[in-house]
């Protein structure tokens, strides 16, 4: 109770349980405990977090937030994937906000998510919108199980899997503002909310390459990101002021940056009406609808052949009535027909695989997406080689033990690892997946081999230097 009152700056003398704001206060205290760590990356300001009292006092002061000066986001372009042969078809735009801005966004993301959860229950979409929800007590394994079980429970059904085109880049600002006002029950956004809204929509970005140049460093230098992230601020105040012409502002009237703490809940608020419509459509027909960020899946029972066209036409005609608020490309939307453990792509009739939340489902068996396993091995081997080559010493000259590596890539009591995730998925989803079985059984052996390879690589390098 003492911590709860302190985190909420409460000076009331009443018992917390008797206060009408008790639930909100408890939720905020829990949120702070989960987000009280400072981020490691360097930005235009010094590192802070909600774990610091002065920061909490600041972000909870509506007048200070209304007058808060937001820094530009640091913009990265992730061009391709390192895992497997197939990378993203287009670069992924990522944005990192400054440390104090992050805390402001976290506070208002918390508030909006709290009100959104209430509204989702009222509208009957509490189970439909599953991305970034903090009150469902479930993860991707549980969500995937619900969908696959629902499909299996339908004797014959159509499954539609789609994703919205450039979703975050095309969120209409006016429509988003309208949905926010509706959520908060106001005709006009309060000044503090408007300040946050204005800066997340008309946001500014500073490209990483230009930041490196402003810092006086060569962009091609090996380890340049690590070098700059070790600084207190990524640029000095003078370097910042001398290069403000590099800042680019979003004036398009659409789009919010991916990567900010508030982007996810804004996306959910934006899709409130859409989720309610499709959830009602699926529920009325005995089907299931789920949306995870910009991806959705809907399964609808079939009795007549004409229903396939009817279902597909309805979804696309409904989206067309939204006037471009969201876009869904018909040719990139996957259709499947399921019947008695058999899944076929429609209209080709070839065997199909549903790719959903990191799992593959072929109508009978479920597997972890192979690229996830490839990603696990890649990261583990890279980390092990780095440790071996650095003589078991971290960049800040602290000794690293093999236990550190095993806690990340084997089992940990503190934080779920990929191996823990794979074991839980195997148990709950009854996976028939030789690759997952192999990684669970042999991962410790693979870790030991990777460490040995890193050590041998270090020894070989020393021998070559001596020669």
Measured by DSSP, the beta-strand proportion falls in 5-15%
Give average pLDDT, whole number: 89
How many distinct beta strands? 12
Helix count from the secondary structure assignment: 18
Q: Strand pairing plus helix content: what structural class?
A: alpha+beta
* Rg (C-alpha, Å): 25 Å
Largest sheet: 5 strands, antiparallel
Cα-to-Cα separation, first versus last residue: 67 Å
Helix content: 40-55%
Shape: globular
What are the segments in which pLDDT stays under 50 over at least 5 consecutive residues?
83-88
Outline:
The chain is an alpha+beta fold and 467 residues long. The protein contains 18 helices and twelve strands. Helix 3 packs across helix 5 (99-123), helix 15 runs parallel beside helix 18 (434-466) and helix 17 (418-429) runs antiparallel to helix 18.
List the helices and strands and how they pair.
Layout: H1 2-7, H2 22-34, H3 53-59, H4 62-66, E1 73-78, E2 92-96, H5 99-123, H6 140-153, E3 156-163, H7 173-184, H8 191-201, E4 204-207, H9 208-214, H10 224-229, H11 237-242, E5 248-249, H12 263-270, H13 272-284, E6 288-292, E7 295-301, H14 306-320, E8 334-339, E9 342-345, E10 354-356, E11 359-361, E12 366-368, H15 370-389, H16 402-409, H17 418-429, H18 434-466
Parallel strand pairs: 1-4
Antiparallel strand pairs: 1-2, 3-7, 3-8, 4-5, 6-7, 8-9, 10-11, 11-12
Helix pairs in contact: 3-5, 5-12, 6-17, 15-18, 16-18, 17-18
């Amino acid at each position: 109770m003492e911590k709860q009152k302190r985190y909420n700056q409460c000076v009331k003398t009443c018992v917390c349980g008797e206060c009408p704001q008790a639930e909100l206060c408890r939720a905020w205290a829990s949120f702070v405990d989960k987000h009280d760590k400072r981020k490691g990356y360097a930005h235009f300001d010094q590192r802070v977090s909600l774990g610091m009292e002065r920061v909490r006092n600041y972000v909870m002061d509506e007048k200070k937030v209304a007058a808060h000066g937001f820094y530009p986001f640091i913009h990265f372009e992730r061009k391709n994937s390192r895992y497997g042969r197939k990378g993203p078809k287009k670069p992924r735009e990522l944005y990192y906000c400054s440390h104090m801005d992050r805390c402001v966004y976290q506070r208002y993301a918390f508030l909006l998510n709290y009100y959104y959860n209430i509204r989702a229950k009222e509208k009957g979409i509490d189970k439909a919108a599953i991305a970034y929800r903090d009150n469902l007590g479930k993860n991707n394994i549980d969500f995937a199980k619900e969908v696959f079980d629902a499909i299996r429970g339908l004797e014959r059904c159509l499954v539609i899997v789609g994703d919205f085109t450039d979703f975050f880049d095309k969120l209409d600002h006016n429509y988003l503002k309208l949905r926010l006002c509706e959520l908060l029950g106001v005709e006009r956004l309060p000044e503090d909310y408007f300040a946050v809204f204005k800066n997340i929509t008309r946001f500014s970005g500073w490209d990483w390459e230009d930041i490196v140049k402003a810092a006086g460093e060569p962009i091609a230098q090996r380890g340049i990101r690590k070098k700059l992230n070790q600084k207190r601020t990524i640029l000095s105040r003078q370097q910042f002021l001398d290069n403000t012409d590099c800042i680019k502002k979003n004036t398009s009237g659409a789009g919010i940056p991916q990567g900010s703490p508030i982007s996810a809940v804004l996306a959910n608020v934006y899709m409130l009406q859409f989720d309610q419509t499709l959830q009602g459509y699926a529920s009325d027909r005995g089907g299931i609808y789920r949306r995870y960020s910009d991806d959705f899946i809907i399964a609808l029972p079939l009795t007549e052949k004409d229903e396939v066209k009817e279902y597909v036409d309805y979804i696309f005609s409904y989206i067309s009535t939204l006037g471009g608020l969201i876009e869904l490309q018909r040719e990139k939307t996957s259709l499947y027909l399921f019947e008695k453990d058999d899944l076929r792509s429609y209209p080709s009739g070839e065997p199909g695989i549903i790719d959903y939340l990191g799992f593959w489902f072929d109508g009978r068996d479920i597997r972890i997406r192979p690229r996830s396993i490839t990603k696990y091995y890649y990261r583990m081997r890279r980390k092990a080689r780095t440790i071996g080559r650095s003589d078991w010493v971290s960049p800040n000259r602290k000794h690293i033990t093999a236990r550190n590596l095993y806690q990340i890539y084997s089992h940990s009591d503190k934080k779920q690892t990929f191996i823990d995730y794979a074991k839980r998925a195997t148990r709950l989803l009854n996976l028939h997946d030789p690759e997952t079985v192999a990684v669970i059984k042999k991962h410790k052996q693979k870790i030991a081999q990777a460490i040995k390879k890193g050590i041998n690589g270090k020894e070989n390098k020393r021998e070559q230097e001596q020669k």
